[in-house]
């Protein structure tokens, strides 16, 4: 069976880079120092998020040997025998957030729809199918 990969949507990462460029331009063209500082911080935050979305692709990869999760510290590979997969729903302020939890004791990796590019339930089903 082929390896499966999950990553943030390309359009979302591209939009992040476009917003980064717009915020940086705005910061350079701002006349007041307080505007430059505020928009400069915004540009840096957008830069960090966009760089993370670009550098950590694919965020999750799975094959018959196990799962590899990419982070800024580098990729981590977990074998199927050391991994517990579950989907958790958290309800706050009337909204439900769904996340995929990969528990390789003592490390816990939590991935959301933004990290995966698809519903965590669908990803969990694909991971369980690969595990078999």
UniProtKB/TrEMBL annotation:
It comes from the Bacteria. Residues 57-131 form the Low molecular weight protein antigen 6 PH domain. InterPro entries: CFP-6_PH (IPR019692). The keyword Transmembrane applies. The chain crosses the membrane at residues 37-56. Keywords: Membrane, Transmembrane, Transmembrane helix. This is PH domain-containing protein. It comes from Saccharopolyspora rhizosphaerae.
């Amino acid at each position: 069976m082929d390896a499966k990969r999950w990553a943030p949507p390309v359009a979302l990462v591209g939009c992040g880079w476009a917003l980064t460029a717009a915020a940086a331009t705005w910061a350079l063209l701002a006349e007041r120092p307080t505007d430059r500082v505020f928009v400069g911080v915004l540009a840096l935050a957008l830069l960090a998020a966009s760089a993370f979305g670009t550098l950590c692709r694919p965020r999750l990869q799975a094959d018959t040997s196990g799962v590899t999760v990419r982070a800024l510290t580098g990729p981590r590979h977990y074998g199927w025998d050391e991994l517990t997969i579950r989907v958790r729903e958290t309800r706050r302020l009337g909204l439900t957030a769904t996340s995929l939890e990969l528990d390789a004791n003592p490390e816990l990796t939590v991935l959301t729809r933004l990290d995966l590019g698809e519903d965590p339930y669908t990803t969990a089903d694909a991971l369980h199918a690969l595990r078999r």
